[in-house]
């Protein structure tokens, strides 16, 4: 049967309908029990819509086990009855459907809705937590909505669900239990350390954890309250505030906090904002919930057997998708790292076709027990590189093949150093000299014009250049000995290399391609230490004082610099990167001193500002790369950063600014257009 995303497929016959019902019930059972699913969330939703359409046209043929109209698709039941049924939500999939739903509700009420509340649809498991005289006595899963499973044993592992409330009340808190991004990562570290397979995604992790009783390890979860029984008469936003006052966690403290909106226009805007924040939220959401806020509206609208009429879920496209792992490629990176990459049967995730996904390192493949031909979960959020989460082991057919690991470096055939988690060609950077040099001469590093890929290959093949430092020893005669190199080209190239000699420390450092240090980190390191000599003299402890360098990365940098010593010596001999500026961390500064060291001088129009640049620049700034923008910020005395947080004080938002703008607006951060910003820093424009 064909299932298309967005518009429901047409079920053409009773057999196709029956088949669809069986598939949906099976998928719902897996989804609501262990959180896994042979169908992605989008496909499940599309399937249910196709079933609904068929049943609408053929009401006499509705099968008794059809998932429509049932909580959890009718797939799961528990044995402890709920005091009040735990309902589900109806779904809409577009702004138009949301508007139509709201209009329908207002028609039913016979008046405009008295305010809405818009909040994240948390992607976890619904639970009911019963309190007697303010003490937590029982936790139940939703089950089929009428009866759930007792999971009280998990009480001690759920943050945000207090053992005692601030008042001795008899109430039942309802909400979602999930693994935040950090908790998911920690959970998988703990599990793999215990030889257990990692969770495929946060929802299955939460489901598995809530049910598990006798694990030799503990996994922490988080509860978000969004409803309650036993606190009548409150509007929804009032209820949320009351729940927080009782000591329960709510989404109020998150960037996607529930917001009361007066008009549908405001509702749609908040829906878009929450959707835009999705990639930066510390927990998964699969939609945005819109609720009539007033108690009187909710009461009058009432509920159907499956869902309340006063609330609806505006679903967002799934970030997890299931597809097939076709192959694993092994590529050698600039620094000689031999990295695996998954080749996938193309799959559309949130509008983007994904064909490749990262697999981190060989140990990761082994830990995840992946095989060629497996159905795998792929996760993609925002602009991050999609990653393979886990195989659907229960979907295996027996035709899957083990993944072959390379015996020798797939690029040069030399041996592989397997002593670290990340494998590396024993030739290190030498294996990829051309790539290293191309990176070093790139626009944001040494910016050597006229040294493209073909020239770099020529120079390396001719034995003239083995690393970036050798560029500065090139002579006119050597260049003229190369094919297709005339007088003018040779002079131009030598002139460009001459200009590169004077590049500031941050760019020379960046050109080295030290693992774990891109442009931003190179600027911070350069500002912190002030000279290449000081950087080379730094030990891991001193490096870890730089903002954003943890102890692990600091150690890698020390090792990399030791490996790069011959290159650094040659650069110094050529006078490259030898300029000295005042370090922001005086030599010998006590450990634990300010790590916020990226800012340039103490003065300047951006003194004290923490600046993030997003979107495409226009006007006087149109030609600047993101790195050049960040350099400009720092020249003008500010601190440049790539992500918006509560510490950010200024956002420069160009065209097509997305989630960063939304987050800055949410946090009330000052936002400037590129033109306004250019005026502000006019004296520092190079
Ligand atoms: S309200 C009567 N609010 O989504 C109230 N549900 O697909 C019904 N969910 O069963 C639920 N975030 O597990 C509500 N902010 C939120 C939610 C939320 C996640 C879950 C909940 C519900 C399911 C329906």
Q: Helical percent range?
A: 25-40%
The biggest beta sheet is recorded as:
7 strands, antiparallel
Strand content: 15-25%
Gyration radius, in Å: 29 Å
Bound molecules: 2-(butylsulfanyl)adenosine
Low-pLDDT regions = 1-7, 588-601
The CATH topology of the largest domain comes to D-amino Acid Aminotransferase, Chain A, domain 1
Number of domains: 5
* C-alpha end-to-end distance: 61 Å
Q: How many strands in all?
A: 23
Q: Mind telling me the CATH class of the largest domain?
A: Alpha Beta
Give the overall shape, derived from the CA principal axes.
Answer: globular
Q: Please report the number of helical segments.
A: 22
Find the CATH superfamily of the largest domain. DNA ligase/mRNA capping enzyme
| Content-based structural category | alpha+beta
Instruction: Assign the CATH architecture of the largest domain.
Output: 2-Layer Sandwich
**Mean pLDDT value:** 90
Describe this structure in words.
The protein is an alpha+beta fold. It has five domains: 73 residues, Helix Hairpins (Orthogonal Bundle); 236 residues, D-amino Acid Aminotransferase, Chain A, domain 1; 98 residues, Nucleic acid-binding proteins (OB fold (Dihydrolipoamide Acetyltransferase, E2P)), CATH 2.40.50; 74 residues, 5' to 3' exonuclease, C-terminal subdomain (DNA polymerase, domain 1, Orthogonal Bundle); 89 residues, BRCT domain (Rossmann fold, 3-Layer(aba) Sandwich). Helices cover 33% and strands 19% of the residues. It contains 22 helices and 23 strands. The strands form five sheets. Strands 13, 14, 15, 16, 17, 18 and 19 form a seven-stranded antiparallel sheet that branches. It has a five-stranded mixed sheet with strand order 2-12-11-3-10. Helix 1 packs antiparallel against helix 2 and helix 14 packs across helix 15. The termini are far apart. The structure holds 2-(butylsulfanyl)adenosine. The site of 2-(butylsulfanyl)adenosine has 14 residues, from strand 3, strand 9 and strand 12.
């Amino acid at each position: 049967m064909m299932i298309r995303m967005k518009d429901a497929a047409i079920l053409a016959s009773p057999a196709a309908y029956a088949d669809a019902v069986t598939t949906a019930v099976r998928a719902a059972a897996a989804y609501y029990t262990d959180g896994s699913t042979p169908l992605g969330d989008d496909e499940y939703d599309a399937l249910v819509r196709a079933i609904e359409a068929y049943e609408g046209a053929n009401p006499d043929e509705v099968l008794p086990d059809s998932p429509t109209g049932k909580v959890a698709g009718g797939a799961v039941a528990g044995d402890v009855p709920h005091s009040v049924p735990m309902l589900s939500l109806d779904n809409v999939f577009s702004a138009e459907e949301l508007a139509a739903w709201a209009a329908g509700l207002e028609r039913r009420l016979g008046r405009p809705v008295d305010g809405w509340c818009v909040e994240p649809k948390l992607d976890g498991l619904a639970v009911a937590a019963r309190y007697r005289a303010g003490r937590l006595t029982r936790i139940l899963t939703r089950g089929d909505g009428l009866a759930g499973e007792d999971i009280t044993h998990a009480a001690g592992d759920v943050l945000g669900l207090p053992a005692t409330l601030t008042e001795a009340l008899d109430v039942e808190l309802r909400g979602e239990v999930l693994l935040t991004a950090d908790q998911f990562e920690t959970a998988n570290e703990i599990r793999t350390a215990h030889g257990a397979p990692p969770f495929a995604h946060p929802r299955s992790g939460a489901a598995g954890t809530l049910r598990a009783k006798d694990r030799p390890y503990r996994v922490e979860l988080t509860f978000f309250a969004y409803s309650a029984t036993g606190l009548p008469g409150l509007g929804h936003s009032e209820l949320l505030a009351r729940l927080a006052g009782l000591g329960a966690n709510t989404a109020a403290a998150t960037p996607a906090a529930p917001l009361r909106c007066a008009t549908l226009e405001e509702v749609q805007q908040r829906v878009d904002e929450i959707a835009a924040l999705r990639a930066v939220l510390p927990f998964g959401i699969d939609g945005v919930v819109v609720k009539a806020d007033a108690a009187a509206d909710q009461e009058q609208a009432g509920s159907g057997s499956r869902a309340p009429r006063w609330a609806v879920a505006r679903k967002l496209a799934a970030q997890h998708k299931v597809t097939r792992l076709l192959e694993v490629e092994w590529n050698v990176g600039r620094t000689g790292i031999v990295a695996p990459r998954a080749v996938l049967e193309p799959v559309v995730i949130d509008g983007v076709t994904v064909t490749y996904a990262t697999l981190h390192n060989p140990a990761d493949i082994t830990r995840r027990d992946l095989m060629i031909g497996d159905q795998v979960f792929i996760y993609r959020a925002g602009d991050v590189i999609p990653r393979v989460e886990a195989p659907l082991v229960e979907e295996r057919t027996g035709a899957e093949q083990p993944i072959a690991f390379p015996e020798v470096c797939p690029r040069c055939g030399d041996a592989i150093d397997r002593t670290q988690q990340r494998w590396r060609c024993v030739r290190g950077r030498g294996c990829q000299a051309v790539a290293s040099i191309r990176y070093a001469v790139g626009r944001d590093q040494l910016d050597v014009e006229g040294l493209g890929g073909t020239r770099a290959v020529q120079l390396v093949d001719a034995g003239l250049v083995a690393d970036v430092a050798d560029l500065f020893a090139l002579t006119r005669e050597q260049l003229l000995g190369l094919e297709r190199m005339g007088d003018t080209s040779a002079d131009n190239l030598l002139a460009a290399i001459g200009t590169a000699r004077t590049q500031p420390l941050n760019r020379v450092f960046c050109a080295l391609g030290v693992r774990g240090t891109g442009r931003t980190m190179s600027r911070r390191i350069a500002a912190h230490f002030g000279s290449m000599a000081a950087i080379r003299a730094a030990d891991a402890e001193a490096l870890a004082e730089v903002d954003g360098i943890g102890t692990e990365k600091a150690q890698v940098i020390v090792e990399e610099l030791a490996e790069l010593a011959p290159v650094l010596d040659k650069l110094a001999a050529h006078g490259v990167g030898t300029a000295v500026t005042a370090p922001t961390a005086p030599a010998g500064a006590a450990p634990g001193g300010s790590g916020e060291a990226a800012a340039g001088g103490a003065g300047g129009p951006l003194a004290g500002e923490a600046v993030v640049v997003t979107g495409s620049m226009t006007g006087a700034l149109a030609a600047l790369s993101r790195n050049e923008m960040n350099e400009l910020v720092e020249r003008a005395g500010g601190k440049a950063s790539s992500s918006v947080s509560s510490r950010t004080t200024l956002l420069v938002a160009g065209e097509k600014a997305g989630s960063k703008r939304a987050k800055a607006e949410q946090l009330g951060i000052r936002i400037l257009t590129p033109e306004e910003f250019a005026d502000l820093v006019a004296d520092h424009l190079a």
